Amino acid sequence: MNPECTIVVRSPADLIAVTPYLLGFHPADSLVVIGTVGRAVSFVGRHDLPPPGGDDTGPIAQMVARQKAQTVSLLGFGPPEPVNRTIGALVAALNRAGVRVRDQLRITAGRWWSFDCADPSCCPPEGLPVPSPHNPIAAAAVFQGQVALPNRQKLVEQVAAVEGEERRQMAAATAALNLKLGEGLPRTLMGRAGRKAVLHAERQHAAGRSLTYDETAWLGALLIGRTAFDFAVNRIADEPWHLRLWTETTRRVEVPFVPGPAALLGYAAWRVGLGPLARVAVDRALRHDPYHRFATILDRLLAAGISHEAVEDFGPPAGSVRGRAA
Q1: Rounded distance between C-alpha atoms, residue 291 and residue 278, angstroms
Q2: pLDDT (tens digit, 9 = 90+) per residue, 194-215?
Q3: pLDDT, tens digit, for every residue of 207-262?
Q4: InterPro entries annotated for this entry (predicted)?
Q5: pTM of the prediction?
Q6: 201 and 57, same structural domain?
Q7: Is the separation of the CB atoms in 219 and 201 below 8 Å?
Q8: Do 168 and 231 share a domain, yes or no?
Q9: CA-based Rg of the chain, rounded to a whole angstrom?
Q10: Do 228 and 127 fall into the same domain?
Q11: How far apart, in Å, are the Cα atoms of 251 and each of 157, 162, 231, 259, 281?
Q12: Do the Cβ atoms of 308 and 302 come closer than 8 Å?
């Protein structure tokens, strides 16, 4: 969520209404943890509900405790049994860790219940209706530029490979590039070309333009080299066009070239607090290269719930990409 977005939450219903905008999508079969410091949200985490007999609340509680939030709210989205079981176990684990739990809510089939209220006059046994998508909280979030996709799959699709004519054009551009390069470029030329390609891509996207298919194929190939990748990492800032650049490149390039731009997209999203987008981008990078070192480090930071602000001077590690160094 945009850290400059200001929405006042006054009730559990307001908290339920704003949660999809904190995540970027409407959760299902999920446990959502929202930490606050004072009146500000300090972190948001989402976890799948564990299967029967499974309990991973211990590591979640440890992750939450590391965030140093003053209070946390727990929202379980899904059927009663797994939600009740998971929230009960997590509350116990958080209490042992010294974390104060403010709200415990279950959201099931369009209605919600509070674990903290037994008064039928305000918390009836049949639950209360989930706020309408057109409620004031949702309207305020949309007005401030926030988006809540229908589900997590829609977020995954935002980083998925392009299809149809775009895919054919990229396949042709990549094949032509492979034929042209033959045995490849010398290391010194590859590093220089990589920096030049990154700068050109930045200029294009800063001006609201896209790369050609040939330029995208060239950039993707160069990002295999360490010099180009590290150069690109160190130039990522908070302007929205960085997200557009690396989203487009991730979606366009052929499979062998996906890890580099996907890791860059994950980093760009993580920097601006878009944890769910960072998560799906890093997942895609590691799906195609489980040993991509930069993506692996970012994966661990995301899993631990560590924000960009909590990390000083984060940059690419030595040998941050696989393949021949450039």
Answers
A1: 18
A2: 999 999 999 999 999 999 999 9
A3: 999 999 999 999 999 999 999 999 999 999 999 999 999 999 999 999 999 999 99
A4: DUF4192 (IPR025447)
A5: 0.75
A6: no
A7: yes
A8: yes
A9: 22
A10: no
A11: 9, 5, 21, 11, 10
A12: no
